[in-house]
Amino acid sequence: MSWPVENVEHLRMDFVMIAREPEVNKSEACRRFKISRKTGYKWLRRYEAGGLAALVDGNRRPLACPLRVSGDVVVELVRLRNKHEYRGPKKLRAMLLRQGYSPDEVPSLTTIGRILRRSGLSKAKGRGRPPKQLPTGPLSSAQEPNAVWTVDLKGWWRVGDGSRCEPLTIRDLYSRFLFCLRPVARHRTEEVMAVFEEVFEHYGLPDIIRSDNGPPFASITGPCGLTRLSAWWRILGIKLERIDPGHPEQNGGHERMHGDLAREVESRPAATVAEETLRLERWRIEFNLERPHEALGMKVPGEVYHPSSRKLRDVKPCVYPLGFERRRVRRDGCILLRGQTVYLSEALGKQDVGLERLSETGWRIWFCDLVVGEICWDGAGFTRRPATEARPSSPQNCNPCPDNKV
Known about the structure:
Distance between the termini: 73 Å
Number of domains: 4
CATH architecture of the largest domain: 2-Layer Sandwich
Order of helices and strands: HHHHHHEEEEEHEHEHHHEEEEEEE
CATH class of the largest domain: Alpha Beta
Structural class: alpha+beta
Helix content: 25-40%
């Protein structure tokens, strides 16, 4: 039985004074003070050895601590945390190892978390919300770099002079390598295409590009959801993959990167868009070359990524099978057939489509390997209708998208 908490030194003095009386039974004294005989005899021995001063608790700090973290490591840890305030123990520990500290010098994740809390650089978190259900859509998995690229437009914010800053972000799904982090005008497709062309020239072409369903990547009115940008991707032989509407968690890694960007850059905007552009480029370089990722075994993206072997200059034009009629879509989205103007889509403007004859009065319209609709002649003019389920063999030199789903 332990001593009561309040006035413990006085209780020890009272016990010792009473238990030392000749006629007092020591076992009875221990029961009276609700302590064990072992504890009672311990305090009697201490009193005999050192008097009343020995009844006060001493310092229990160990004389030696072989696992103690060195002051240099603590200082460096605090410096890294102040520089990267949103990086947790896992990334900070990996950064210490990358700086040359040996595994014996670097503390464990639990110790790093305790150091951050004692330094006022971190707070204990609750259990949080339950994890969201994983996406069930037929999204591709990336087993190597350049298998899948993810693209998005980060939500805009205003810089110091009131201008809007909305960065275009392009990222490799496997290696987490960030190709582009540059402010663009959302509705200027030419500007976005110019950025993609620069990235393709430098890093090569991916197999798949995954995006959401918003402009300039997709359209709710265009055939197969095509826009001028995504139509150009198909011409380059890049498959299109889109997440379900209203489910950003299906592109969770990209959204997580946007969250880090919001905390570390957006929360403290620069004075002008030009200055913000420089800050974003510095952040991109740091993300690729300094920031370790747990999914990569605490490597940085630059150690995992390598450019694609598919080069922009090697892309060959789509060749439609024999028997197809080739038509050039005008800028206004129309083609000429039998002297009549037939509207397809402005997204296909200045591109070639193939017409597969189904009957004397009907044609199926192909763009690369995508069926974008059917048209038929009713005697007075052409009418357009959705494509039927039946599909012949795909045109040559194109990567087919299964089931016409893009």
